[in-house]
């Protein structure tokens, strides 16, 4: 098993300035805060890292800034997310050139295909770029569930180093962890969950990639250490606290999907002073007014202390 | 909170004779075995109890036989599953008349509707029949997910006594458990999971309704007692063993859905001598030949001891 | 080819009294009006005939009333819609006993299955009941699309007499018509469409089953006769007029699915004096107030003349 | 109404050499053949033009080659398909710079969003690039259906010039055509269908974008001219012949989606001598062996005359 990528590896959210440029200062501040919290790695340009919204130039800028800020303190995984193989390979080569420690790719999307295309896709990426490759299983975006037996096969063949599971299918996840163990643990299996990470750890996950970790990461680090120590009571307590905090993504009105989820993360981070704005990429609007107040209220209920007012955050994008 | 329906409440599988009649003898044998294993209740005519395949006469026969066999040793829940309200109420009145302790109903299905129809549906059932009513959340059959806030509202209004959650949405499940706790625990929240029950218990479930419990129930009883005692190490160990046993539903070929799932349960029960046959209801074929052998192999790997050969079971339906 | 079931065969909507009993008088009035308009058959207890909402007793009452009212003037098809095979066969036997000329059944639903179960399902129904059997392809309710090659095979084997296609998949429909023609036309292929019947006729449909025909049937009869005569200009003109009328199902607010669709049909029929009320079956609410006015406005735009006011119709269910 | 983009506008399939380079010679040959057949425009980099598989460099190469080959004989539409707004705008600027006459964009995909995001997306593209903009409605790839009222609104606001409808929802298509007519025809509404184009023309389509037109375009041109003349008998006859030819995409085995559809188009074009190979982009495999023979047989049944053998085509990619 690859020990390099075990533990808590948050998918880092990308801060923007009011005019939608990369906010390098906020980005570095957030990265330092995550590393100080004790993360085991950082995942840039994931779905919540707004990879789908970022042009090639922006992606390059994010990777460069991230790798400079991390400065080898923890391993860096880079999402190379695009519709089909050749486009993914282009991103992967850039990530390699810029110093990524591992790359993360979904199955092909947009065009319709089947399992043979998915298998060839991962094999071609692996052949093209000499970096550990994680399969990113995210059916809500890609509209296909990666089958466990294909993942294990690609693990045993040395094509895949691991899996980042955002499938929200906890039954398949447990079977994957079991099969992986029986096969000699070729894959590092990470859960992309936020409020049921405790269950994923009981199922045998090698770590987690929680988007909410951008807002509050120390709890996820404590939960992982407790799981490693078999202290399930603590695991559960930490998870309950984090689940309460996750309500920032459900208390808003009139927004949905990425705008509600990453929108709430960015808003919380702006309230907490980590980000300068809660700006979102086109065509998504930032949370404003009553929605910012709702996020603020959840933070306070959970014992976090905003350093900026909701009004200041609402004004930050204008 | 209604304490009456907490704990392990398996959805009882319905045995058939080779000519597809109800096999009352096997049914009574299975019921006694479950009660001896220490279950806290029994759920008849659930999805795995082949409610959808059973005529009104058969449903009545199942309820009568079940209630006589249980003989008040544990509470009896009866599934009143049908397309729309008036049909469900008919089933519920029969269940009431025959002595059920609680009834279980899904949202309406077949015709398209929205949340107002779902809410009126549960209210009308509750008004018509004076028994505790559980909402059965099973989107894979009903094609709608019951929203947590509607469930809590119906709980607070005294319409629903509980929820049987087979939604396979563990994130929504944790939020439901949290909201239920905050609301004063109006609902008894049971998970319909089999291999991730440990996670559901950590999330705060009041019990479980595991179909696999028909094959091996003592493990689920031990897991629940351990969860109640906060002994999460034991919870996890029991779950891992049961997850290994659940592979009986994935080792077969050429079958799917109900035929693969309940087909494997019945086959395992026939191999273990609980049921006389592994017969399935029309239009589903029973497992045969190599598929029976595959189930047999899993049972043996898990330390269970079949008392009949795969060949005997294959011949049992002919 | 079975000539008996070609042409326009509306799925008859079921009128209820304010207290949700079958309104036999309105039902007979509507049936006579349809036959006078020149329909080639009538389909009772289809999806829009509220089969899913009707208890066994109500289904029997509907069939008896319908067959008495029709009095052999046109063939009568009866929907035998239920979750699984044995339940469908029960309904089919009742339909046979009461004098139906043909029966209509969907694939099994609720429990998960595959194509082998679907094929056995139709074969078992055919073996059990000696009446022409139509397969009802309605994925929006049943959540499976019947494959064309299976339908043709069952047609050639004498299991199916025809198909009522409500799949809204016009590509599959054209291929089905083509394959049916090549196979010697074993199936009578009817479209369940309302606003693209012209396209279905160009594709080779043997007739149509338009729910909107309950409101205005003479146009559908003219369209069919024009199609038979190859007068496509008239076909198109009639379709355009009927498409305009179909807007009664899209002009309402706050309702969806069956409540919006059949709710609008019943409301239009109440406004036109065909039905005494626009009452809906539990748990669906009838259209009221502004929604009734919206339907009224569409009728008037299309040149129809309501004989009752929107207010009278709103009050009809109270 | 914009008359510039009415009629038959095939989505041009992109030929590759055996080593997956753009085959400029075959491309030019195919373009000339289409223009000679009388098309009213050409659409490059659509879904069947393998836009999702093409890197930015390849996209540029395709546009440059196409525009040079077309040489202003017909209008050129260019697909600017990518996950989110800023990436689409980049492609649109390149298309503009290289001389496209119009651009075509889908709703955002991959990240989850709602209607507000879709509306802003099209508005932002329109503001950024001064070219007629078509909305590409293709839920099978993008997993959202564009609502008719939003399309009309964007048409009336001058944001959209038209719609390329590949939604396979013929009911919504007819309502869109009707609403467009009532609104003064702000949108040019093109159907992406191949075998039910006759129905789309009866519904009021302004033209068609048939992928099968790459293989046989003269029939589509005759069908459109007949529709314009109100000669529906000819429309239907041409459609029936083209539907028979479309079977090239259903006669193969072991392939699916893009590989089956565009794979069959390329194979037919290689057999007919239009393309030098039937090579497919990574990760899709070209049709081979028995699948090529099956396509060949359909071509011959439809009266087309392959100039190369199936074996030659199978060898063309090796």
Automatic annotation (TrEMBL), chains A, B, C, D:
PROSITE patterns: DHDPS_2 (PS00666). Signal peptide: none annotated. SMART domains: DHDPS. SUPFAM superfamilies: Aldolase. GO terms for molecular function: N-acetylneuraminate lyase activity. The active site is at 136 (proton donor/acceptor), 164 (schiff-base intermediate with substrate). Keywords: Lyase, Schiff base. Gene3D superfamilies: Aldolase class I (3.20.20.70). The keyword Electron transport does not apply. Belongs to the DapA family. This is Glucose dehydrogenase. It comes from Bifidobacterium castoris.
């Amino acid at each position: 098993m690859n020990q390099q990528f075990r533990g808590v590896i948050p998918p880092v959210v990308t801060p923007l300035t009011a005019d939608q440029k990369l906010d390098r200062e906020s980005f570095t501040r957030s990265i330092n805060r995550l590393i100080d919290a004790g993360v085991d790695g950082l995942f840039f340009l994931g779905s919540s890292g707004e990879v789908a919204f970022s042009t090639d130039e922006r992606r390059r800028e994010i990777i460069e800034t991230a790798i400079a800020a991390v400065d080898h303190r923890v391993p860096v995984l880079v999402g190379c997310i695009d519709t089909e193989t050749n486009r993914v390979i282009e991103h992967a080569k850039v990530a390699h050139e810029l110093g990524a420690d591992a790359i993360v790719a979904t199955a092909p999307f947009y065009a319709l295909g089947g399992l043979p295309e998915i298998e060839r896709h991962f094999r071609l990426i692996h052949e093209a770029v000499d970096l550990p490759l994680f399969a990113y299983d995210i059916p809500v975006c890609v509209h296909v569930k990666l089958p466990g037996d294909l993942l294990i096969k690609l693990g045993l063949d040395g094509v895949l180093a691991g899996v980042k599971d955002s499938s929200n299918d906890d039954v398949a996840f447990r079977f994957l962890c079991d099969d992986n163990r029986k096969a000699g643990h070729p894959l590092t299996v990470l859960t992309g969950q936020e409020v049921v990470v405790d269950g994923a750890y009981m199922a045998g996950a090698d770590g987690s990639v929680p988007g909410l970790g951008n807002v509050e990461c120390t709890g996820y680090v404590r939960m992982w250490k407790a799981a490693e120590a078999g202290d399930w009571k603590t695991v559960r307590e930490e998870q309950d606290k984090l689940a309460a905090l996750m309500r920032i993504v459900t208390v808003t009105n009139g927004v949905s999907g990425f705008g509600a989820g990453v929108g709430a993360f960015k808003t919380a981070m702006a309230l907490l002073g980590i980000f300068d704005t809660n700006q979102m990429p086109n065509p998504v609007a930032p949370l404003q007014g009553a929605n910012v107040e709702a996020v603020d209220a959840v933070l306070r209920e959970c014992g976090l202390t905003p350093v900026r007012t909701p009004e200041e955050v609402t004004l930050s994008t204008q």
